Predict the structure.
Amino acid sequence: MSSPDTRQSILSVARKMVQSRGYSALSFRDVAASVGVKSASVHYHFPTKGALGSELARGYTDEMAAYLADVLGETADAAAFMTKYVGVFRAALVNENRMCMCGVLAAERDELPAEVQAEVERFAEVNVEWLGKALERDEPRVPLAQRQARALAIFAAVEGAQLIARSRSDVAVYDQAIGAMRTAGLIP
Amino acid sequence: MSSPDTRQSILSVARKMVQSRGYSALSFRDVAASVGVKSASVHYHFPTKGALGSELARGYTDEMAAYLADVLGETADAAAFMTKYVGVFRAALVNENRMCMCGVLAAERDELPAEVQAEVERFAEVNVEWLGKALERDEPRVPLAQRQARALAIFAAVEGAQLIARSRSDVAVYDQAIGAMRTAGLIP
DNA sequence: TAGAGACTATCTATCGATAGATAGGGGTTG
DNA sequence: CAACCCCTATCTATCGATAGATAGTCTCTA
């Protein structure tokens, strides 16, 4: 197996592992076994656990940012944006009851190397900024600060809905919570 | 040191440890060192890590349930209830940037013994049920199902707000998110 | 009431398993 | 040949857990 393949396999396997078991439970041996190489080979591509973790988080955020940018490119109203947005987090639950990787990492904050922490914060920034832009489509006259505060609240609420739905292994919990958030007026 | 003291110290230290570092990072040695005994003594009081974890979660939920019952006993409207409710989660953040223990545990779901998982689910049930009762004070005519859905949404939103505020080590993020949730009408 | 026996709570020492990490060798390929 | 990639082998540190011993306390009984 050539290097780019191995490297990508490592990232893919490690991402799933973090999403389902957390950063602390991410081990070089498990990743290696799942990829089909030895743990020393994983160290070849990612010298330390922090290097692997930060690249994982960076790639995760980058992919999310790219997807959100695409969605924003389509002309649509805020409600349509939100439907797509909550769909991303829903998909993680449907896919083997996983969580947003940065949500998991946030819960383990004190265990993370600083470089990983920074990426987690960037993920939040990217999401909140995007949500602010999406809200702007509907209510361009609302002051920026107020819109950003609401964007922050939506991001937090969606992460929370995912968290508790996962704790019950029941995507219906997510749907119910998101539905109520929309009914109440938090999410367009 | 007599046994009840040691046992309580273990629970107290372990709770803080889980709240700040997660279940995976909870170790008998660290707990023992912090309490001032040997790890074997911790095993004397809690034979397995699962036993310690489930008792931690059980006690945590029990304390929360008792506090919430007290609050509900006081005559007040839903808004007053919510102020106290969000204050509980705020206090954890202020207190060394900790998180709701069951929120942390929810994120690590797949790493938890079944007995601990069950306690995490009970915490959610207790919270949602209480929130439903609190909402009932303001809107007794709203159908039960709808009220419970909103209660679920509030619980999820508050947990989420705490999660992302903690990831930034900034309680102001929590305040801003909660404020926007109230402004938007999700939280009374 | 004195002593035997059991219980409590802790200790020291150690177990096998696993963690992340490293040194150095070997094969493949451009 | 040189760079790249993966390997074997190993290291130190730590994990949860257990064995066996001990000092102190409690209880029951002769």
